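chain below, 347 aa
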Amino acid sequence: MSSRRVELWQLTLARLREFYREPGAVFWVFGFPVLLAVGLGIAFRNQPPERPRVAIVNGPEAAFAADVLRAGDVAEVVLVSDDEAARQLRTGEVALTLAVPERAELRFRLDPTREEARHARDRVEAALQRALGRVDPARVVEAQVTEPGARYIDFLLPGLIGLNLMGSSMWGIGYAVVDARRRRLLKRLAATPMRRSSFMLAFVLSRLVFLVVEVAALLLFGALVFDVTVHGSLVAVAGISVLGAAAFTGIALAVAARVQSIEAVSGWMNLIMLPMWLLSGTFFSYARFPEVVQPFIRALPLTAINDALRAVMSRGAPVHSVALELGVLAAFALLGMAWALRTFRWQ
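prediction:
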């Protein structure tokens, strides 16, 4: 075995030992994403929509309206005074209030900016109008279909994979490099015959080892607990994950190339990752943001890996259909590594 391979092997082993000897690091890389998937998967699991809570003002026809809504299981109804109804609406205890002074008049009070209130009004009005004799001119035929790929957990899991790859790469590498520089370990390593490129390549190889466990753990957990199915190629998922880890490793090395304190690298890491936490569509679709910022959002590496993983896992898309996303990841990987090699400070 050549000397270059020996030094690369030893450096990679050193990185692996540093990691698994820190129980906290093991938990945050492998345990926390699983717990996050459990919590969010249960919170947003598929279940029937909740009945809105409606306050009906006491009056001549209040009992009639309450009976109609309860019989049709349209809403959860409380009969209260006018002042109490106004108070409950103001504090958000009810979606809307309803007064029925006579059967020919329905008086609603609601906040039109609350989507729940608008839906509740439509359901309540439709139920009462039918009870009062309204006949719908068209016959409605409804087919209820529940697709596993359309659940929130199916949307969430690829995002958690991307988020975990970003966090473990950025903190696991950037923090480790700066900490070694602070303790003057890099200065000692620089005095050895070690090649500087081998030092950085060891970080990349150690990330690949962690990557296998990270991605496999989340995919296996999603399949066993939430019946999440990968509709595309597992090889494609693995390739996207590897390229994503390489992109975040390049960014981490570029950030840590010259920083000398833990406080400074923490600030830089948060500055880089926080926009991606908010914008890259990990927990909700970034389509909610204005169209003018969409090109910037799509250029973020976390957005690229999230979109690529969702395309392959949820839609079964072939790899060539996510070529743009893969290009974004490759660009960050190459540019980050090149910048780190050019500017890296050993002391």
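The chain has 13 helices and four strands. The CA atoms of residues 150 and 239 lie 24 Å apart.
thats it, cya
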